[in-house]
Each structure stands twice: as structure tokens, then as C-alpha cells.
Amino acid sequence: MADTLNQNTNIVASNKKRSSGSDECDHHDDSFFVSKKQSKSLVWEDPAAALANARHEFGEHGGVNMSIEASATFTVMEPETMRRMFAGELGPDRDFFIYSRHFNPTVLNLGRLMAALEGTEAAYCTASGMSAISSVMLQLCSSGGHVVASQTLYGGTHALLTHFLPRACNITTSFVDVRDLEIVKEAIVEGRTNVLYFESVSNPTLTVANIPELSRIAHEKGVTVVVDNTFAPMVLSPVKLGADVVVHSISKYISGAADIIAGAVCGPASLVNSMMDLHQGSLMLLGPTMNPKVAFELAERLPHLGLRMKEHCKRALEYASRMTKLGLKVIYPGLEDHPDHALIKSMANKDYGYGGILCVDMETEERANRLMNVLQNFTQFGFMAVSLGYYETLMSCSGSSTSSELNNEEKELAGISPGLVRMSIGYNGSLEQKWSQLDKALSKMQEKMPF
């Protein structure tokens, strides 16, 4: 059996290299980040196929699932080995580990899977989505740095760029409408701007970024493109479309169970290595470490992410279409009347749909709250809760919840109506069963107010 395993470069059995003898090469290698297939040539694949082709880690005793390396620190067999590890001569590429804030084998494997998912050279998984975003910005920008960012962002990211980074790090941000490519071009100052940052599908307004054109504009001026792809895993592949770095809140669709907080940075191996540098690395020194037990659980969920995303997206499109016919003001990129429908259709990976989130604009917060109350407490369609990607539908009034960090003027610029209800459409129960619950709630609302 061992001979068979060794012939397959995508299947990796446990082979601890505990000796640092001179018979081994001493150079550092990036290949520990990715499967051997990927490290040779980054050829784009369907996300589900890429995940299936990533190296498979078996358990220590031959289990089909990898073992959990729950150690904070790691032993060496020879005193000289530790010196060489800290000098960078020996590393995870040869199965030498120092401390789990640096690299942990279980977390490292999840990183390989995330790199496969996004088609990047490398990925590193963190304790939260915000820690992934913060670490990337701090690695790519120094004091006096400049960011150009979309004016429509998740509230926490907006607060980071608007308040924290200017105060703590002297890093400033110019917020622009990324749909206006000329304005983006004018905002980027060659030699000063470090990062162009936006969400592939914006939270909560569901505008779609023209990733190829935005990447082209940024690269012409030597600027790194960072894309938050939390709303659209599998649906969009930003690096395939020209972006440099992808960040995720794994807590959402990738987890799928609303029980884990986690994040990921996917990008060039050189960037991830720099973020893990012992002296200058933002991930290494700020320490947003992922627990290996969490990494194990997430690695078990990634294989069925594609199936889950297809069902989320299928139901979101169906409900958006039916609600539109009833006269509601629905925002969903999969609808032909959405201003970015043609754009997302041109960029989306085939067969994954247009995203699992739709918005209903009820115009006022009072009407939005009444709708959510009926949907949760009278017809059991979903839950009033923030976050997304859960198997049940989650609903929130964005202006007073996940975008509450923006002031009224910023919300208006971002296009966030006071009555905007964001719905992360779940897949629990049958489609018709859940539609019946939604339709019943809408009928109850219509008794008191016409749409």
C-alpha cells in the first residue's frame, strides 16, 4: 500500500522528517503551502475540481481523515535543529514545526485547500475574517500608506479603514464608487497608493465589482488588488479574473453551520511567507492563530461547499424572481433587471449561480422590522440574525446592524436604504415548503400595507 501511496503526488501519508542531517537540501521551499500539482503550475480549474485535486492528508494511523495536531509546540531530536529552524533553514516544507502560532500541520492543510479553492499559490487561515483583512492591509501598507476602497463595504471593514488604521498606523483610505472606473483611476496615486480594496459582491447592496477592469487599472499603477470574496465562494474566482489577494470570512458559507469564527488570506506564496516572517510578518507578530481543531472541522466541510452553494444560489434566484412578480423591490444579481447582471454572468463560474443573498427594500426600518418579525415569529421562514451562509435563512436590517458603523451620509453614498432587509437564503426544508412560509408572510404584510 505504501508504494501505491507514494506514486500519487496528490496523496500525502505521514512521513515525519525529524532529522536535519546534511543529506537533505537546506533551501526553503514554498511548496508546503499547496499541493504538488499546484506548485508546478497554477492552471485554473473549476473550484470543486481544484479541491478534489488538492493533496489529501491521511490520519497518523491511516485514517481517511487527517489527524488533529493539537500541540502548541513541537520537539526536535537534535539541539542544532532548533537553531536551523529559527534561522529559516528548516521549515514546514520538510515537516519541521516550531510553534503553532507560526505553522501548525492541521491549519496548514486547511490553507492548502483554501489555496485550491481560490486558485492561488498559497493561503493562510486565521482566527477571524477581520483578522485576515487587517493583517493583509498591515502587511501591504506602511505608515503613510494609502488605500483606495469601495464606499460599499462590510461595516467592520469600513470602520477599520475609516477610524482604526488612520489613528493607529497613519494609513489613510479614499472611498470611491468602484463601479465608476474613471473615478477609481483618478483616486489611485501612482507611487503612493498601496492597495485597491473591494468586495466581489458588496455587503449589503449586492453591487458586483468589475474585477478584470479594476485589476487592470490598479496593476497599471503598481497597486495590489485585494478582494473580499466572502459573499461569493465558488461563484466568483477573483484571482482568475485578475486580482492578487483574496480574503474570506470562513465563518460564513465555507463553515456553513454558524458555529465557527475563522478567516483566510489567499494569494502569492511570497506574500504569505512575508506575513509569516519572524521579524516583520503581520500574521506572525499579531498572532490571529486558528485552533487546529477548528481547522480540522472546516477541512471536513469544504468538500461539500460546492453542493451547498448551488442550492443557496438556486433558491435565492427562485425566491427573488417570485418576490419581484409580487411587486416587491428585490435586489439580486441573478435577476436580469439588476444593473450588474450581465457583468456577473460574464465573470461567474459555470453552474454555481449568482449568490445566495438577496435584499428586499422595504424603504423604512419600521416596515423592514415588521416583515422580519412576521417571517420569523409567525411563519417560521427564517431567523433574525446577522451573518450568512447558514442552512436556515438569516435576515437583518443592514442599516441598523451590519452596516451600523457607517454614518447616515456614508450609508446614503453606499446605497443602503433604511429599510433594506438582507436575506441569506438557506436550504433547509423543501423549496416549496419555505416559499409557502415566505408567501404567507408577504400576504400578512399586504393586508396592512400594499407593496
From TrEMBL:
Entry GO MF terms: carbon-sulfur lyase activity; pyridoxal phosphate binding
Biased composition range(s): Polar residues: 1-13
Modified residues (N6-(pyridoxal phosphate)lysine): K252
Region (Disordered): 1-27
GO cellular component: cytoplasm
InterPro entries: Cys/Met-Metab_PyrdxlP-dep_enz, PyrdxlP-dep_Trfase, PyrdxlP-dep_Trfase_major, PyrdxlP-dep_Trfase_small
GO biological process: transsulfuration
Keyword Endoplasmic reticulum: no
Alphabetical UniProt keywords: Pyridoxal phosphate
Cofactor section: pyridoxal 5'-phosphate
Nucleotidyltransferase is among the record's keywords: no
Record-stated family: Belongs to the trans-sulfuration enzymes family.
Name of this chain's protein: Methionine gamma-lyase
Organism the protein comes from: Solanum verrucosum
Highest classification ranks of the organism: Eukaryota, Viridiplantae, Streptophyta, Embryophyta, Tracheophyta
